[in-house]
Fold this protein.
Amino acid sequence: MPTKFLPMPYPTLPYVWRLSSKFFLLSAKILEYAILRYVRKLGGFEQFDVVHIHELGGSITLAKAIKKRANVPVIVTVHGRHPALFKYQNELSFIKKAFDYSKWFDKVFLVGRPLEDFVKKFGFKSNDISVLHNGHQSPNEDPERVEKMRSEYSGKTLISSVARLYPFKGTDITLKALANLYRDGLVDWHYLHVGEGPEKPSLENLAKEYGIQNNVTFLGHLPYIDAMTVIAASDLFVMPSWLEAFGIVYVEAMARGKPVIGCWDSGAEESIRHEIDGFLARRKNADDVESALRKLITDSELRMKMGANGLRRVADFTWAKNSESYIKVYDELSESSR
């Protein structure tokens, strides 16, 4: 039987969960009520073979509510450390509530291994957990636009990042590493950063303090195709983030033949092979990032070699493989529940 999918509206929740763990549970109940009401209009959960929820945060009470209404398998994919769960994970009473809810999921999928210890804090066991990596979209940028951007920085090594401007993304580490290179006389490069966030003003000031503001451009938020055009036009990609669950953007850069720089002990390890597709740096270590940047900026053959390795590597990370794996799970669970 072919697998059919029903798009679900996902209500925007008020950020009252920031106040306390009790308010977070209230937000989860609001989400639960909105979805249950929507599904009742469609005839109830009994008509479904499998319910697949994305993200553990706001759905933590939803699975229990579904199980009470229908004998249907419920699975969840955890894409990252939900900020509320991350904030309240050390509150014993909240953990106990979360532990009670964990039994309502038939299967838990993680987009990357770094999330395993995190979800185990909420009562999930190793045999409940599987890792299923995200995929990437095939490049479809306009070659003329890519070439035009390259020509604007002719004669310089073009370095790109695509990341929200939050501390854990490591943009300040990248700027410090670039500043060290600049002071050493390695100045024929330009850094393009795509993304917005609360750290933007301080990072722009940091670039000025380092004296590299003429070599750094913060482009702000760009549509997806424009962000990918920046990566495609660049010579290498860097994002020393230490809290990535997987990091699709690394794979997107590799799919465009770019060597990449990420962090050890993070989702970057899921895709980047150190000294093969790029480099992995220690967390918050500007010296490691500086060393990796120096090697890639000064050695075009190394960039090409690592870029080619990465291009072959990303064949393992496609949405086709991702969806085939999920459909296999849907079929197995729906058969076992009949």
